[in-house]
Amino acid sequence: MIRANNPKIKSWVDVPEGSDFPIQNLPFGICKINNSEPRVCSAIGDYIIDLAKVNDLAYFADLGLSRDIFYNEYLNDFMALGKGVTRAVRNRLSEIFDADETKWNSRELQQYILHKKENVEMLLPIKITDYTDFYSSIEHATNVGKMFRDPENALLPNWKHLPVGYHGRASSIVVSGTPIRRPKGQQIPNDSKQPVYGASRLLDFELEMGFVIGKKTELGDTVSTQEAEDYIFGLSLFNDWSARDIQKWEYVPLGPFLGKSFGSTLAPWIITLDALEPFKVAGPVQDPPVLPYLEYEGEKNYDVNLEVIIQPEEGEGKVVCNSNFKYMYWNMYQQLAHHTVNGCNINVGDLYASGTISGKTPDSYGSMLEITWRGTKPIQMPDGSERKFIADGDTVILRGWCEKDGVRIGFGEASGKVIPAHVEHLIA
Ligand code: CA
Questions:
Q1: Domain total of the chain
Q2: Which end of the chain has fewer beta carbons closer than 10 Å to its terminal beta carbon, N or C?
Q3: 407 and 337 within one domain
């Protein structure tokens, strides 16, 4: 067992019940502390751990890490050190904050390394080199197929044979808390042959999980399902905002484009694949059997509870979705094997998103498109208003957590508030 994963360890730092960040989590992110230079950080309870300072104080001295690794705008250099090093850093943190471990003078130095989260600004953790979005939930793909194509043949013939995906846009991925401007674009009104231009009226969220690459390949290389674990550094909550009206008109025949690229929200914390090891579960049975390069051994899905909240500008919010990452038909290992089977190289900092994570029941659907069934079944908000899609002023909050043996590993949150379109650019 990885030392830091030991469920028995208690920290000398007070960790409130239900916290996302017990000593068994120790995720990685990038922050500014009281407006400092950006640096690598972790979290425990309600505190942020300044890893640049931890390194300055020589807690990692035997690991031979340069100062620049931690005084850094992004996690890319840190991740590129490889799992041998990043695992050792996480294990060392587990020792430093272990209530039963006395060889570190961390308690005396805590004023230098721990900061209340209120004094810390979390930044985008990764310099995202490339972004790919998959479409790997069978429930989501079936729902969309029923709505837009043929209810009898909701899945296209390729769907059960390969993890369908497309190359997305990295430049518009923003960290949780960044407002999302309602996009404008071409739409086709119902019963019309002529498109119109305007602000999207069908703005949606997509509940997704992203995984981040920590090890590169060379052009021509292929990563097998067995090797994939070594290439995936960690996971983070991801909202792949979607403008359904723009998407519907533009997507044939090459797939998603401007209906997706106006913004996506990533949570600030990367939860290491190491920390998630205890939460592996079996995925759905794949029938028909997949081609040999997509076969895998062992349990490769992860039991992560997921939740989506719509928080209006005023008044009470509403939980609109309870789903789970374990529902995915195609797992991350298969996605990476498929992505590289043609020899496409991958880089440290690549982000791969799961696709919308829907369960079998309407309360577990991972998008408004499905929850309100294209707007035909609006939901009621606590203040009596209705939502078919996301309104200006609404904040969409994604949360995720694993729970087992009294340990709760949380993902923080990916939240974004929708702000009105730039109307001054609209043609009346
Ligand atoms: Ca998506």
A1: 2
A2: C
A3: yes
